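Morning!

This is the sequence you dropped in the shared folder:
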Amino acid sequence: QLCAILRVAAYGDVKMMIPMLTSIDELKQVKALVDHARELLRQRKVRFNEKIEIGAMIEVPAAALSSDIFADQLDFLSIGTNDLIQYTLAIDRIDDEVNYLFNPLNPAVLRLIHMVIKAGKRANIPVSMCGEMVSDSHYTRLLLGMGLEYFSVQANALLEIKHIIRNSTLKNLEEEAAEILELVDSDEIKDRVQQLANVL
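The structure's back. Tokens below.
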């Protein structure tokens, strides 16, 4: 599979993303496997992309907490909010008995997301986000204020979120987001985010 990705990357804009990364040891293992795949292709004298960009999906708390380390060794990061929220709060979002506790605005979740975004900015690499949270327009201005620049959203949410982004002032949102990140009460955070979402 790695050989196939490297080969197809020679013919178009292809990047490789490591899922469920949790430690630097895992990153080293993946990089060693990629290097091995490169060597196999060299031996076969097959065309491939030597400089393919490699990134990681940040979807568990361990990865978010180590995002500064990963950012120094990768070309991009992507925050997977569905799993990150689930693992941070120890909640199975498909279990009807507990899924009401699934809360994107939990202070711990917001701090982890912000940590990853800051790590990317310090390392000067792009940080994107996918998942239900980024496709929900109620959170768009908050995420913009937290510094998120790359939104991977569901097709049916694209136009609305694009409209919000184009009609937002980043400086104001940064100040609002900074204040929200200082809050510890989820209900208060929800109210502030709702007010932010309703700004024309």
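Headline: The chain has ten helices and five strands.

More detail when I'm at my desk.
O.
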